[in-house]
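Weekly modeling sync, notes
Attendees: S.R. (lead), two postdocs, one rotation student

Agenda item 3: backlog of single-chain predictions. S.R. asked that every request posted to the team notebook include the full sequence so nobody has to chase files. The rotation student volunteered to paste the first one in as an example of the format we agreed on. Action items at the bottom.

Example entry:
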Amino acid sequence: MIEAQVHGSLKSFLKSQDRPPNPWNHHLTMGRLVARALRVGKSALINTGSFPSVHSWGYLTAALLGGGSCVLVIEEPWRSLLMTNHLPELQRFLGTSHCLDCDRLPDSGAQAQPTIYLIAPALWLQSHALDLLPGDRVPWPMPVLIEQADQLPDWVRQSLTRTITPQHWRELKQWGSWELIETYQIKLTQEIFKRPSNPHQVYSFNEAIEALLTQLFNQLQRDGRPLPRPWNLFEQQWAHSEQMNYLTIDREQGLFSLHSSPLQVEEQLGQLLNHSSNVLVGNFGQKPYFHFDVELEHHTRVDFTPDHRCDPIQLYLPYSLPFPNTAEFAQDLITQLEQLLTVYDRHFVVLLIDDVPLKSKVGATLAGTFGSRVKIETTDIGRSGVLVAGWDFWTDHHSQFPIPQLLVISTLPLPSLEHPLVALRVEHHKRRKENWFKVYLLPAALRRMQQAIAPVRQHQGTIALLDTRVNARSYGPEVLQSLEPYTRISKIHSLDLWGN
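Predicted structure, as returned to the notebook:
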């Protein structure tokens, strides 16, 4: 049976590796699970608690030994890593000869040679036409594995976002009513650029913008002809109450784009995942914060997140730091960081700071003390360097760095209410009379922390959490529970510097 073949071949492959031992202990189980799912067409959700570079060997072995073609939906940079490194290495060891095809959808007919198609999420979702009913869709012709499936809600939301760009205005003018369209474009431009600048250059629609768009569409409908497709899609969506309507601005060019995104994507996710077989692989977080925005009807769930009896992290959490919203916080934070960096002087360290002015101040001050070892948001850094970065930078680029021996979380990564898209989602929860902090902000922060600390845990590293609101606020116990298992330390001199 293929499961036994995958188990034996993968075990031999892992033993043959001339690299440091892989800290993830579930490769053989992963390989058997995926092999069975591919063989019988059974859907599965596998919560790995790790990143693709760590856990991908199991499902890749199952895909190569399964005999047929399959689709692997995966983002960059992981797609390139698997395409150029992992898959060729496995093929050489296993003696398989699958074609590897990147960013091309498979044909609906039979494949001349077994092929693994590595395609981007946007291309895969585009092929599924999410705005169609399940019965109207063409069945997918082969098994699908989705890596980083914890990002599926965001991918679906992006796929369903309707956007009007400057190019679409030019196309609309060619369609007809040039003077009318030019007039409304000028009025919108004047209204939009009256808005004060913000760091994100993202703005929610105000009443004046909504009124101008309503008037424009009413005028265009009098023509009786169908609008160009982007305008037709935008018109159908933007006036619905369950949408996030916002605009992005390029102030230097004097240009803007309009966007309309669905607030809820559960229905589309359900249609996507419950009407075809698929294997979802991702870092979904630990229970009880394991989260997915849809009820999966047929998926076997397997959880490989850390066992609470082992894999504890060192959690440095002092008791007496000022809160982040106080004037004293910045200087006390810098003092703490200087002490920590003195202890971790021969290791790669990451300092996560989202506040832009604070990030710059911390980076400059620490560079004055520790020299060129300290870098701000760059991938050009040594193995004992100190990276000062925001959460988005670290999330996007962490695969290009060593696993940090110390990861410092300066403040909880709560979505900022100052970001217009966060504010729109909060307003949505308020309209539904929901506790927006508990149902949106806090779970988002806890999932992000769990995903960030997963590789640190596997390498017996240390997390420093310097947001002492955790000690005082009612949500503190939930934050600490989400980080379990851990050994709490409140004094720097008590840190056990493993491997120093």
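Discussion: group reviewed the output briefly. Residues 295 and 302 are 15 Å apart (CA to CA).
Action items: rotation student to repeat for the remaining queue; S.R. to check formatting next week.
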